[in-house]
Design a protein that fits this description.
The structure is a homodimer of 201-residue chains. With 201 residues, the first copy, chain A, is mainly α. Chain A has 9 helices and no strands. The structure holds a DNA duplex (30 and 30 nucleotides).
DNA sequence: ATAATTTTGTACTATTTGGTACAATAAAGG
DNA sequence: CCTTTATTGTACCAAATAGTACAAAATTAT
């Protein structure tokens, strides 16, 4: 897209792109959380050395916020793409089904970077991070529009206010993630997907 | 209840009861999580000095597991008590309403010690703690029995299998906690309580 | 007073944490 | 070869972490 791979006029050429290592960092934060990520492991995940890290970024925290931003971008992009393929309602269902299947298969579930790290921050500092709150609002707004579209084209028959329905969906989603991560029996998990489908009707 | 306050034959009398300081520790863990609790703050919360702490307990971890056990006991006791006063269904609703009100009023919400610390452990070690899993099973079983009772006496009209309904309820509950802690707008929170009431019908 | 027991205070340890400083080296163009 | 730029390696730092050791003081019964 942008002029990433243009040769810099002179000097040793770069061996990594900033955006690429942010993505690697994002995946690591996503899996381990912010506090659960120590710098050494993060560096291994990013494939760069400490010296390069601190020449490129200000701190671990800065990389985290860049990761959070990338997470939002990628989530929205994925949802829009899926929408084009299978429609609004099916996208909302499949997103959750994907997590359930992943938990069943590999017994591991990354969950939601925003919610999980928001919770970490909340537990640590006793207040909601203002940054997290606005990110959360972005998610709610996006899903509200998403749901609205489904209601208008008839894929979602539940005529509850789109924003409220989006919040119900997101709440259920984060609850399912927590339940899965808390090790709920697989025998009862499928019913949770029915629950979601009932909600979207 | 037990012979807590009997005088020990000789020596300086105890100034704190083990169970009492465990309860204080529980409340601190509940609010800050396990990793988010450092020993010095924990000691302040428990009102004892480090020397006393390590003479009474083996480690921070031991106190945490004792706290977790107490948490379960107290939760079940509270639910049984409320059941006697306002019935099964109303108890399930009010429990959540209490959290919502707390979040609205003081802008702070402890959430669920088991789920929150289970998530911490999960994120850190990549697997579900076996201890947490069995605790989770205890909770599911308790709520399943609770729901069953409500279905039999007609307070809950939703005739979905009691265990599945209990899991739906718990999932919704943990989702609501996450949403509140993530700083969802208060304007949409009330609808989440309607959602719970609809579920229990 | 003395023995028994509990709590406190102080000092210490070993490990891990995020972060810094800086020289050495690698890879390109001029 | 020389300059420029990117990466690496090594060494270090200050702070925070959970936990230990042990003497001193407090409070009781005998």
């Amino acid at each position: 897209m942008t002029n990433k791979s243009v040769k810099n006029s002179v000097g040793r050429p770069k061996t990594f792109e900033k955006d690429d290592v942010i993505k690697l960092a994002m995946n690591h934060f996503w899996e381990h959380g912010f506090e659960g990520t120590n710098l050494d492991d993060l560096l291994v995940a990013m494939g760069i050395k400490k010296s390069s890290f601190y020449r490129t970024f200000k701190s671990k925290e800065e990389v985290f916020f860049l990761s959070l931003n990338l997470y939002k971008q990628e989530t929205f992009t994925l949802l829009e793409q899926l929408k084009g393929e299978i429609g609004v309602k099916e996208t909302l269902v499949q997103i959750i089904k994907y997590d359930i299947d992943e938990a069943k298969k590999i017994g591991k579930l990354k969950g939601c970077l925003l919610i999980d790290c928001g919770k970490e921050f909340y537990k640590k500092h006793g207040i909601i991070s203002e940054y997290m709150r606005t990110e959360m609002d972005d998610f709610v707004d996006f899903f509200a529009k998403f749901v609205k579209e489904g209601q208008l084209n008839g894929q979602i028959t539940n005529q509850l206010d789109a924003k409220l329905l989006a919040v119900r969906y997101l709440t259920l989603y984060t609850g399912i993630i927590s339940s899965l991560q808390a090790g709920i029996e697989f025998s009862v998990v499928d019913d949770l997907l029915f629950f979601v489908e009932e909600l979207l009707k």
